Amino acid sequence: MTRLRLPGFIRENPSLGLFALLCTAGSGFGQTFLVGIFGDALRSSFGLSHSLYGLLYSTATLCSAALLLRLGGLVDRWALPRVTLMAGVMLAAGCLMLGGALHALMVWLGFFLVRFGGQAMLSHIGMSTAGRYFALQRGKAVAFAASGYPLSEAVLPMLISVLIALTSWRWAWVASGLIVLLALLPVLMHLSAGAEHPETGRATDTRAMRGKTRAEVLADPVFYLLLPATIAVPFIVTALLFHQAALAGLKGWSPDAFAAVFVAYGAGHLASLLIAGPAIDRIGAQRMLPLALLPMLGGLITLAPGNAEWVPVIFLGLTGLSQGAINATLGALWPERYGIRHIGAIRSVMQAIMVLSTALAPIVLGFMLDAAVAVNVIIGTLALATALAALLAQWGIWRSP
């Protein structure tokens, strides 16, 4: 009988490969694409205006980013099961808090817990694991871990929509918390049980012995040239998806125009991961970074003037390509450039900056919408910013030794 042969980079450590994948997939319970499904129900239940609802979400995300700067380095110091338990319990508690919220302050606390435990920490743990423990074909390993994002994008919105239809938005949050606590977390704890402690385990990459510290990274001028490209995709995706109903109205589409074709985003996301991993192993993550922004740039250029019903499909498909490419690239970029000894601390800075950008995105776009800025001008501005970010990243690559 022919036995199933796993890809080489997974055979290096199959348990941790699956662990990293499930971490990124599980982070979906705290990602904007899922939280946004509850937007109308939360606003109507607590009498929140669009601005106040956005403020609650953004400030909770800002606090999550601040805490990540403090606790993100635990990935370098704590055993993997211990730090995973902390993140999973906080994510589950946030889901349950939102399900039982009786006041807007409880909504804020729930937002904070799901954003920190899910979007921030589980993502950070999953991608750090792929970058740390897989020295061979790191690009493919990181791409495999990052495929958890499109997996959750494909499954969770449908699951949550069904739960809301069968029960209510409150019970959908409660069910999400129970899934995390009773299903996801036990599996993650089992898969990570045999992982080497990051402080005592043997390094899997010789560059770990000369890895740069977080302070050295922050003193590197090239880091700041690469930075805009690393946050462009999450900033723009969060801004447009959070305000998708308003944008659809301005375009003359149905309010669920984006949600109805979100499968295009997931398909593009997954397809690019399959391509980006091997490409990173061939050309390197630094050279891949500016290239990863080009599909989204094309999508924004299509979206700005376009009002046809097919435009969201093109935009989401191309943006999904950029999302997958950037996820794979960032997972390999920091180990490639700065080593893995302090990868948790370094990634926590980057993850905090990314979370900060996603906190500011709804506010920035909300102000532009309230100021009655034309939608094509808004999207055109985002396209220009994307092009500039790609150029700065390319300049940083040219400056690199």
Automatic annotation (TrEMBL):
* PROSITE patterns recorded: MFS (PS50850)
Tell me the leader sequence span. Answer: none
Q: Where does the Major facilitator superfamily (MFS) profile domain lie?
A: 16-398
**SUPFAM superfamilies from the UniProt entry:** MFS general substrate transporter (SSF103473)
Which residue ranges traverse the bilayer?
A: 54-71, 83-102, 108-130, 142-165, 171-193, 222-245, 257-276, 288-304, 310-333, 345-365, 371-393
Stored Gene3D superfamilies: MFS general substrate transporter like domains
Q: Which UniProt keywords apply?
A: Membrane, Transmembrane, Transmembrane helix
The answer to whether keyword Plastid applies is no
UniProt-recorded Gene Ontology molecular function terms: transmembrane transporter activity
Q: What is this protein called?
A: Predicted arabinose efflux permease, MFS family
- Tell me what organism the protein belongs to: Halopseudomonas xinjiangensis
